[in-house]
Design a protein that fits this description.
- The protein starts with 8 loop residues before the first strand and ends with a helix.
- By secondary structure, it is an alpha/beta fold.
- The relative contact order is 0.13.
- The strands form two sheets. The protein has a seven-stranded parallel β-sheet, sandwiched between helices. A six-stranded parallel β-sheet has the order 10-9-8-11-12-13, sandwiched between helices.
- The longest helix is centred in the first third of the chain and has 21 residues.
- It contains 13 helices and 13 strands.
- The radius of gyration is 20 Å and the shape is globular.
- Strand 4, helix 4 and strand 5 form a beta-alpha-beta unit.
- It is about 40% helix and about 15% strand.
- It has two domains: about 190 residues, Rossmann fold (3-Layer(aba) Sandwich); about 150 residues, Rossmann fold, CATH 3.40.50.
Length: about 375
């Protein structure tokens, strides 16, 4: 007796930056191994731009599934350029949705280009799945983009019960809202970190020396203040470099991102023996850097979500992450050189963070995959 072949579940996964792709990787590993799923990765945004490291190459090297690319994002980063990029991406994705159909489309986070991809799919009644909804970043326009993506989605995977309640209030129901923890922390207790000596060799970093891991992005609310803020960052890091080496991961494609990028390049040029720039570590190498650093300074979500799992304290500067649920390893300071230096001198005496990570749960990617398959039946 012949058995009928079951129809595979078709899933499209949207990725626009090194950050979201790194978070996706545990889920992509599970999706690509599942014989009941056809996975297509749509890469766009920063992945296709040289100044952000042409990270499309890494996606191709990982070979998780079919890859489509969509152009449309400007290389410039003024408010006007961001708005034009948004409109271009909506048009490009509308053309893509006409030609391509999936059971589900996965979107992560809160960036403007991710929002454009999702908004373009609304008239096509696409079933979006949103990861990391319900979070709050008062100092960033990402707060608006994130909620837009939430409202356009039919299934939600959040990183805490607090965020579950927020998403439920936005969409009007707790149905199809799941808290399985932060995807980036999936199996983090079992991960084989890249040897730091190997990372140093690959990125031309000094070995066997203490260093601080730094990432700064512009504040996208009150955009005009970034000229002042970036100078404070410059002067603060210059002072701290007298005491420690600094490894800086470069900013994303936000409005005024170039402002910070230019100052970081100047800083590294002025202090070549103390300050080192990395465009894109990749997930495993970045985790190795987190594991080996003495602390983190900046305004990036990795300091909020992942750093506690590596027992690191974080100096979180400014309002970009204001409103986020935080672990006890995070110290908030304003854009003030005196405050940043004072907190740095305090944190360097603390040693390792010994608390738990509130965003960690076991088997996050497996639970997400099972839930998607259950809904597709």
């Amino acid at each position: 007796m012949k058995t009928l072949n079951k129809k595979k579940i078709s899933i499209c996964l949207l990725t626009s930056s090194r950050a979201d792709y790194g978070i996706y990787k545990p889920l992509l590993e599970n999706l690509s191994k599942d014989k009941g799923i056809d996975i297509t990765i749509v890469a766009f945004g920063m992945h296709l731009q040289k100044k952000f490291g042409n990270t499309i190459k890494k996606i191709k090297e990982d070979n998780f599934g079919k890859i489509d690319t969509i152009e449309g994002m400007s290389h410039k980063d003024s408010s006007y350029d961001i708005a034009v990029s948004y409109s271009h991406l909506i048009e490009k994705f509308a053309q893509y949705w006409i030609k391509n159909s999936y059971d589900y489309v996965i979107a992560l986070g809160d960036r403007f280009e991710m929002s454009a991809a999702v908004q373009s799919g609304i008239p096509f009644e696409i079933k979006f799945i949103h990861l990391h909804g319900g979070e709050t970043t008062i100092g960033s326009l990402d707060n608006i983009y994130r909620h837009q993506i939430t409202l356009a989605s039919c299934i939600h995977f959040v990183s805490s019960d607090h965020h579950l309640k927020k998403v439920a209030s936005l969409v009007g129901s707790k149905e199809k809202v799941y808290n399985f923890g932060a995807l980036s922390l999936d199996n983090i207790d079992k991960i084989n970190l890249t040897k730091w000596s190997k990372v140093c060799k690959k990125f031309s970093l000094p070995q066997n020396q203490n260093f601080i891991l730094v990432t700064f992005h512009p504040e996208t609310v009150g955009l005009e203040k970034n000229k002042h803020y970036s100078k404070i960052v410059f002067e603060s890091l210059k002072k701290i470099s007298e005491d420690s080496n600094i490894i800086i991961t470069m900013p994303n494609a936000d409005a005024s991102g170039t402002l910070y990028r230019k100052l970081m390049i100047k800083l590294a040029g002025d202090l070549q023996e103390k300050i080192f720039l990395v465009e894109d570590f990749g997930r495993e190498n970045y985790f190795s850097a987190m594991h080996n650093c003495s602390m983190m300074i900046g305004n990036t979500s990795s300091g909020i979500i992942e750093a506690a799992s590596f027992k690191k304290y974080v100096i979180n500067v400014g309002d970009r992450q204001k409103g986020r649920l935080k672990n006890d390893n995070v110290f908030d300071v304003s854009f003030s050189k005196n405050e940043i230096i004072k907190k740095y001198n305090y944190v360097k005496k603390l040693g390792e963070f010994s608390g738990k990570n509130i965003f960690y749960k076991k088997n996050t990617s497996q639970k997400i995959l099972k839930t998607i398959k259950d809904h597709a039946l």
